[in-house]
Amino acid sequence: MALDPAVPSSRFQLLATCMQQSETLSSIFEQHLRHVEKDVLIPKIMREKARERCFEQVQDFTKCCKDSGVLMVVKCRKENSALKECLIAHYNDPAFYEECKMEYLKEREEFRKTGIPTKKRLQKLPTSM
After folding, report:
1. Contact partners, residue 3, CB within 8 Å, separation at least 6
2. How far apart are CA 82 and CA 54, in angstroms?
């Protein structure tokens, strides 16, 4: 059944259909990632979150490096290997990538709405007395 633009109710149906398709297209474009987002920004979020999740290994490696001084290359191999294994396990996890990607898309959408970068939005405003 074709919509007749001369009939008012058909115009509204046509408009509603166009708006629905427009929302679908915009959501598709919102999910599109540029090269720099895929290869730089999302991996940056992944590194930060992986360090948080591998907190114990990071602490062990940091402590070993501080205690060993110049010989840390030789003395901290075990801690370094444990840290690498933990980080690589997170980097190779597709679910973890998707989680970080969705976090990035949410931040990007918020920036596009407000125009305020995430760092500034998260900073606390100074209080006056």
Report:
1. 10, 13, 14, 17
2. 9
Q: What is the pTM of this model?
A: 0.66
The Cα 90–Cα 56 span in angstroms is 14
Q: pLDDT per residue over 38-84, tens digit each? A: 999 999 999 999 999 999 999 999 999 999 888 888 999 999 999 99
Which residue in 54, 50, 74 sits closest to 64, CA to CA? Answer: 74
Burial string for 31-41 (b: 16+ CB within 10 Å, else e) reads eeeeeeeeeeb
Mind giving me the DSSP string for the chain? ----TTSHHHHHHHHHHHHHHHHHHHHHHHH---HHIIIIIHHHHHHHHHHHHTHHHHHHHHHHHHHHGGGHHHHTHHHHHHHHHHHHHHHT-HHHHHHHHHHHHHHHHHHHHH---HHHHHSPPPPP-
